[in-house]
Fold YdbL family protein.
Amino acid sequence: MRRLLIVAALALGTGAAVPAVAQAPLDQAKQAGLVGERPDGLVGFVAGTVPADIRALVDRINAQRLDRYAQVARTNGASVESVQAVAGRQLIERTPAGQYVMTPSGDWRRK
């Protein structure tokens, strides 16, 4: 089952759970250091003050990711949390140097 989770989470990639129209603004917000990847497979706010359009984008992306994680969990008979953990690890691994990722302790660090 773990292998299925990994394969399914790989399909999520950095953009598979996010429509192409949202990926470019997300990438720009990551490059600007406003947002980063979290260990739970969601996007988080690095900066305290983030423009409303970026907040709305992150809310939309996180909702889409959670829907996708729930689908993968149902398909594999796993918990959503386990799918999120696998996806989070993969998304953090794929994050380019210079962008922010959240550590398991909840601190942001530049990769």
Q: What stands out?
A: The first helix runs from residue 2 to 12. The chain has a mean pLDDT of 87. Residues 37 and 88 are 7 Å apart (CA to CA). The chain has four helices and four strands.
